[in-house]
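Q:
Got a chain?
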Amino acid sequence: MRDVLVVDDDFMVAEIQRRFVEQVDGFRAVGVARTGAEALTAARDLRPHLILLDVYLPDMTGLAVLQQLRSEGDRVGVIMITAARELDTVKGALDGGAADYLIKPFEFGQLRAKLHAFATRADALEAGGGVDQSLIDTLFGGPGAAAPAETLPKGLGAETGQLVLAAVRDAGEVSAAECAERVGIARVSARRYLEHYLRVGAVELRLQYGAGRPERRYRALR
């Protein structure tokens, strides 16, 4: 069981994240912090395996929290969860050793995919012994990493799945209808593929608000 500390100054957002974590097998939320100072104290006291860390905190940035943790020699896993999209912020997270980065707003499936990816990397590193190139590619996200199409649910085809991913990458961002038109499949089929890739973390979701129900738009993460 991996212990998770949730850090977000918005009470409702923090509670949603806590509940999401509790729904993922192998993870449990052991604390919630709402400031950088609380996060640092909780990290020292609770010794979590993973911190879900917001960037915008009232007393310091999440990047400053990450830097402080690293300066103290704490190698706890960190997933930045934030609305911050600036390249400098993303670069700061990478430089600070964050394991992953998830942009708000997000859905449960996206966070679950991030947690599963973290667990996979952690299990591989904890196993010890020698490594081969396929394991290294898995850890570093290289070209030999397993493709999402390999775990497609029943009724979805690998070849069509690759066409769907290619369409998302080429367009930059698509709706299910736009993807269906590019690939030449039914809209409902395109939606099934896109939702699958959202669950496994191959694409991310952006809700485009307008009149009526928000439009679900997808873009590739890798």
In short: The longest helix spans residues 108-127. The chain has nine helices and eight strands. The CA atoms of residues 85 and 103 lie 7 Å apart. The radius of gyration is 18 Å.
